[in-house]
Automatic annotation (TrEMBL):
Official protein name in the record: Beta-mannosidase B
Keywords, ordered alphabetically: Glycoprotein, Glycosidase, Hydrolase, Secreted
Span of domain Beta-mannosidase Ig-fold: 761-816
Pathway(s) per entry: Glycan metabolism; N-glycan degradation
Principal subcellular localization: secreted
Length: 830
């Protein structure tokens, strides 16, 4: 097997297609060609050659819309290595072309593609010549081609973006979303290469299963070959433990069949666990194809051995059924986030940047990420890192917020796309679920075109894509990845009662807060579902991020630039409404940033704290909420959005709020009535924990009104109701609780009187003291709400956005904080 990457080293060039010229003349023209980057996008190439302004800066988005309306040409010359001609087959291979692409090799058309998610392998031996060869690619405007299809088949309903996107198998967020700009890319967005071989390993599948008692694992290995048959051909299968020691290996003769199958069985397997529940043990499966001792091809996969189940059983109170992920016989509360592509221009996301995003998710005690259906099937490095970090992945197929078509050609393209995605990703232990789409059933219900009882020809209904979600995709998953559950959409509840977003069955998107009737975020605990796969609250990016994309005279809360960089429908007004209801609205930008981020953090505390409380009891019957995935972890450009980490990797206060609420031990407190307060705690460990519960009631002026300390037991892997106390002074007092184990505080929570805007909050007299090993101690004389620490870019904090009380100093580790460097402190003022 020989490879020739057709990447930057092949001196790629690009140019704007001149419609006045014949295509062959345009390709051969010497005018207008500029250096291109492969893999890449047209916008990256135009930026690198200074043909367009940065579309992320200021109001520039509007100035680059012409890019997506035009056609583009790419070309390169490459030299065929002499030894390639010794092989029987030479294939041109593409991992992704964006999107309407036609490819010529030495003047002959070899490939036409209209789906950016489909890979291609085209035999080209007869077209190649010794020495120099020419490769040419035409990328046609996805906007124009989509509108042509829409004109042919008819306009379909959707939310977000141009309606023609529904006919184009392209990342849907490129058309603009309520958190992203409209930037219709084109280009060779994933690797392109030549491959020469006589026989190759085309596929390896190992759907490993762990026994119910976890004492053994069954690994059926299936190897598919492509190429001419050979005598004396053998396949060597080796399994290596996480320690790199060989567990078992075998050499099998190839008897002429294109498929080789063998079953490996191992005892006492080292198990792969989600983050926080155990180690992420990863085995290596290595397949080597040999001919008379010569290695012709090899393939390596990492495999995590874990027992995975999606449990849907009746709840004890009869309200519905669980939607619970169980790993290695352990029910897992799936706290986490939704993931969108981390840039509009995916090829420029470095491996280090992926690692930074995902490490922050793991550091926030997250267990699951949902790869949202309007983006992309992510890069291999994304799933590799999730395997390593123990982050479960809820994987959507790439459909979002619309009633997609289902004519024959579209269905065939989708089937190829799904087969590609499942084959590429199925060996990753991180993947927990395949899901058909994002909110398409909700769109259909809102239009009155979803009938759950209909079981005829879906393509002849007003919701034709049910043929995709309920036939094609489950068929592909059942055939190629039968060990995982397929779920038709998110949210989805089966729709038997006419509600596709039923809080009692399946998964639910909770948008009563922010969208809908803009319910108070304090209502989140009452808006619980069995599994909340979307919810969120907007906030501004960090001030440093805002400075990076604005002119100085645009740096005020309602500037034209900041309004443009808030894509939510009525976003600025909705954000202002939540501020007005809860806190005193500031005037200056730095204070406004803090205010919006404060509200987001409070909202996330309310949601995660209230829903994790519903993770109760042993077994399944009282797991009333089994997961909560915030919308969203990340951004794809600098924007006011629901992200808890902004586009420049600055964690917002909400990030720290979620980190505390998803910690192995978390305390909770809520008002039951004007006179009663409930206190609880959550323990995610598999063993019970004895601790001391401290309850202090403080006046706003810093007077300790009452204090109590009791011993409590936190039951394993569930929440425990600890105390109910009387509180007759709620308008002027704060109830603060701590869980203490062996003299160490392991969890804190506080209940403040609300709304905050009516409180007169005295100066808390905050002091910050530098300690050894980059630690600082924060202490106060009077209660302080929302203490936000900052010390410039590059400093990361073990905790932040703190509620601090007298006699309870908090120590925070500030990584990369220089000794005695100044620390800026902000808090909620009244």
């Amino acid at each position: 097997m020989r490879h020739l990457p057709l990447l930057d080293n092949q001196h790629w060039q690009f140019k704007l297609r001149d419609p006045a010229l014949a295509l062959t003349d345009d390709f051969s023209s010497g005018e207008g060609w500029l250096a291109a980057s492969v893999p890449g996008t047209i916008h990256q190439d135009l930026l690198a050659t200074e043909q367009i302004p940065d579309p992320f800066f200021g109001l520039n988005e509007a100035q680059v819309q012409w890019v997506g309306e035009r056609d583009w040409l790419y070309r390169c010359e490459f030299v065929l290595p002499p030894d390639f001609k010794n092989e029987e087959t030479i294939a041109l291979c593409s991992a992704g072309l964006d999107t309407f692409a036609t490819v010529w090799l030495n003047g002959k058309q070899v490939l036409v593609s209209d789906n950016m998610f489909v890979s291609h392998r085209v035999p080209v031996s007869a077209l190649l010549r010794p020495g120099r060869n020419n490769l040419q690619i035409l990328f046609e405007s996805a906007l124009r081609r989509g509108k042509e299809r829409e004109a042919q088949y008819g306009q379909l309903p959707l939310w977000n973006g141009d309606s023609s996107r529904l006919y184009v198998r392209k990342a849907q967020y490129h058309y603009g979303w309520d958190w992203g700009p409209t930037l219709l890319t084109a280009g060779i967005w994933r690797p392109l290469w030549l491959e020469a071989y006589s026989v190759r390993i085309a596929d390896v599948h190992c759907p490993a299963e762990v026994a119910p008692d976890l004492a053994s694992a069954h690994l059926p290995v299936s190897i598919t070959l492509d190429g001419s048959a050979h005598t004396h051909l053998s396949a060597h299968i080796a399994l290596y433990a996480p320690s790199s020691e060989a567990v078992t290996q075998v050499t099998l003769p190839v008897t002429g069949s294109a498929t080789i199958e063998h079953v490996l069985t191992i005892a006492a397997p080292l198990l792969w666990w989600p983050h926080g529940y155990g180690e992420q043990a990863l085995y290596r499966l290595v397949i080597t194809l040999q001919h008379d001792g010569e290695i012709l091809d090899s393939r390596e996969q990492r495999i995590g051995l874990r027992r995975l189940q999606l449990v849907q059983q009746p709840l004890a109170d009869g309200s519905g059924t669980t939607f619970l992920f169980e790993i290695n016989n352990t029910p897992i509360f799936c706290g986490g986030a939704n993931w969108i592509p981390a840039d509009l221009f995916v090829p420029r996301i470095s491996h280090n940047r992926y690692r930074a995003w995902l490490q922050m998710a793991a550091d926030a005690n997250m267990v699951m990420l949902r790869v949202w259906g309007g983006g992309i099937y992510e890069e291999d490095i994304f799933y590799d890192l999730c395997d390593e970090l123990g982050l479960l992945v809820w994987q959507d197929f790439m459909f979002a917020c619309g009633l997609y078509p289902a004519h024959k050609e579209f269905r065939e393209s989708v089937r190829s796309e799904a087969e590609d995605a499942v084959r590429r990703l199925r060996h990753h232990p991180c993947i927990a679920l395949w899901s058909g789409n994002n909110e398409d059933y909700v769109v259909a219900s809102s239009k009155g075109v979803y009938d759950a009882t209909f079981n005829g020809d879906f393509t002849q209904t007003a919701f034709p894509a049910r043929a995709i979600y309920e036939q094609i995709l489950p068929q592909v998953c059942a055939t190629l990845d039968p060990t995982r559950t397929y779920w038709p959409g998110s949210p989805y509840s089966g729709g038997a009662n006419g509600n596709t977003n039923d809080p009692h069955v399946g998964d639910q998107h909770v948008w009563d807060v922010w969208h809908g009737n803009m319910a108070p975020y304090q209502n989140y605990p009452q808006l619980a579902g069995t599994f909340v796969s979307e919810f969120g609250m907007e906030s501004f990016s960090e001030l440093a991020t805002i400075v990076s994309f604005t002119e100085p005279d645009e740096r005020y809360p309602q500037s034209r630039t900041l309004d443009l960089h808030n894509k939510a429908d009525g976003g600025s007004e909705r954000l202002a409404s939540y501020l007005v209801r809860n806190i005193r609205v500031p005037e200056h930008l730095d204070e406004y940033v803090y205010a919006t981020q404060f509200i987001q953090a409070e909202a996330m505390t309310s949601a995660f704290r209230g829903w994790r409380r519903r993770w109760r009891g042993q077994g399944y019957q009282e797991r009333y909420t089994a997961g909560a995935l915030v919308w969203q972890l990340n951004d794809c450009w600098p924007v006011t959005s629901w992200a808890i980490i902004d586009s420049q990797l600055h964690p917002k206060p909400a990030y720290y709020a979620i980190r505390r609420e998803l910690a192995p031990f978390a305390a909770g407190i809520a008002r039951l009535s004007d006179e009663r307060v409930a206190i609880w705690a959550v323990n995610s460990l598999e063993t019970a924990l004895e601790a001391d519960l401290e309850i202090n009631i403080w006046s706003l002026m810093g007077e300790l009104v009452a204090s109590e300390r009791v011993q409590v037991v936190l039951a394993p892997n569930q929440s425990s109701e600890l105390r109910e106390i009387e509180d007759h002074l709620s308008e002027k007092h704060i109830v603060a609780v701590r869980l203490v184990k062996d003299g160490t505080v392991i969890a804190r929570a506080a209940l403040w009187p609300e709304p905050f805007k009516y409180l007169t909050l005295p100066d808390p007299a905050i002091t910050v003291e530098h300690l050894e090993h980059n630690a600082i101690r924060v202490q106060v004389k009077r209660p302080a709400k929302g203490v936000w620490l900052s010390a410039g870019d590059g400093v990361s904090w073990s905790d932040n956005m703190l509620d601090v009380f007298p006699d309870d100093p908090q120590v925070v580790v500030a990584t990369k904080l220089a000794h005695d460097a100044p620390v800026q402190v902000r808090w909620l003022k009244g």
